[in-house]
C-alpha cells in the first residue's frame, strides 16, 4: 500500500523499486490523496502491470485519513504501508516472505534499513545514529515481545514505519487512531504489543528510508506540533503500562528522554524562525515534569 502526496521524482523511484522486485509475489495499491499536480497520477495509472492499482481519493483525507483508507483496501495476509518517497531494494519482498515463512506468528516484521537523503545519497543524521544505539543488538532474525519491546520503543522509536510488514488482521483490528499523525506508527505498535503481539527484527538491509526536510515529522518539529502529539501518547501510555504491570515501560513513557532531546535539538530552528510560540512549546516539552 502506497499513500501518495509528494514529489513526483521520489514517487516514481518508489514505484519503480517495487516493479524491480526479484520475487514477483506482490500487489501495489497507490492511493493518491488528491495531489494537486495530476501528472504523477497519470503516470501511475498508465503503468502496464496488472499487479499495480492506482486510486485517487474523492477528497483529501490528510495523512492519517489516507493511511486508514490504505488499511481498508488491504487484501492480503501481510501489508506494507510504504512511503511514496522511499525505496525497496530488489530483494525486499523475497526477504520478508522468507522471514514470514519462518515466523508466521510475527505481528511486525522489521527488516534491515539504510537511510538516504532527498537526492538519494546515503545519509546518517543524528536521529538515525541514535536509532542504531537504541535498537536491540544481536545478529540475524530475532524476536521480541512484551514489556521489553514496549520499553525499548518508548525510550526511542527505532523502527522504520514505511519498511515494516504488518499482519493484516492486527493492522485492521487496531488501525491508525484519529488525532495521531506523527506518532501513529508507535501508537499502533504499542497496541499490538500490549495485545501479545511480537516483532521479528532482521539485519539484512532491503529498504531505503528517505529522510528529508519535506517529511511530516520535519515540518512539524520546529513549531512543536509533533511534540505535543508525542506527549499525549506518552502520557496515555504511561498510565496504561502501569495498569498492565509493566513498570519499565511506564517509566520509559513518562521520561521519554529521546523525545525531550529531540525537542531541544529543534530549538535553534525555532529561534531562527522568530517563532516564540514554537520556542515555548519546545522548552515546555523538554523540561516539563
UniProtKB/TrEMBL annotation:
InterPro entries: Glyco_trans_2-like (IPR001173), Glycosyltransf_2 (IPR050834), Nucleotide-diphossugar_trans (IPR029044)
Domain (Glycosyltransferase 2-like): residue spans on this chain: 2-125
Source taxon at top rank: Bacteria
UniProt entry keywords in alphabetical sequence: Transferase
Gene Ontology terms, MF aspect: transferase activity
Transferase listed as a keyword: yes
Name of the protein this chain belongs to: Glycosyl transferase family 2
Amino acid at each position: 500500500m502506497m499513500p501518495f502526496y509528494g514529489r513526483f521524482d521520489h514517487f516514481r523511484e518508489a514505484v519503480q523499486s517495487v516493479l524491480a522486485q526479484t520475487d514477483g509475489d506482490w500487489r501495489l495499491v497507490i492511493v493518491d490523496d488528491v495531489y494537486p499536480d495530476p501528472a504523477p497520477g497519470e503516470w501511475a495509472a498508465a503503468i502496464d502491470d496488472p499487479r499495480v492499482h492506482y486510486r485517487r481519493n474523492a477528497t483529501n483525507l490528510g495523512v492519517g485519513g489516507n493511511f486508514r483508507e490504505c488499511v481498508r483496501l488491504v487484501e492480503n495476509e501481510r501489508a506494507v504501508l510504504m512511503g511514496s518517497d522511499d525505496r525497496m531494494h530488489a530483494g525486499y519482498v523475497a526477504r520478508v516472505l522468507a522471514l514470514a515463512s519462518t515466523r508466521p506468528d510475527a505481528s511486525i516484521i522489521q527488516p534491515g534499513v539504510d537511510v538516504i537523503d532527498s537526492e538519494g545519497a546515503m545519509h546518517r543524521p543524528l536521529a538515525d545514529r541514535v536509532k542504531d544505539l537504541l535498537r536491540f543488538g544481536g545478529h540475524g532474525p530475532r524476536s521480541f515481545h512484551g514489556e521489553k519491546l514496549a520499553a525499548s520503543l518508548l525510550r526511542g522509536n527505532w523502527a522504520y514505519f514505511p519498511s515494516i510488514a504488518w499482519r493484516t488482521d492486527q493492522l485492521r483490528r487496531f488501525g491508525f487512531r484519529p488525532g495521531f499523525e506523527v506518532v501513529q506508527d508507535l501508537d499502533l505498535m504499542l497496541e499490538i504489543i500490549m495485545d501479545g503481539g511480537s516483532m521479528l527484527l532482521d539485519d539484512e538491509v532491503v529498504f531505503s528510508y528517505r529522510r528529508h526536510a519535506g517529511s511530516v515529522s520535519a515540518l512539524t518539529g520546529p513549531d512543536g506540533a509533533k511534540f505535543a502529539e508525542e506527549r499525549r501518547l506518552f502520557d496515555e501510555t504511561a498510565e496504561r503500562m502501569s495498569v498492565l504491570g509493566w513498570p519499565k515501560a511506564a517509566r520509559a513513557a513518562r521520561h521519554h528522554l529521546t523525545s525531550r532531546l529531540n525537542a531541544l535539538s529543534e530549538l535553534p530552528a525555532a529561534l531562527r524562525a522568530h517563532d516564540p510560540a514554537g520556542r515555548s512549546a519546545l522548552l515546555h516539552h523538554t523540561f516539563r515534569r
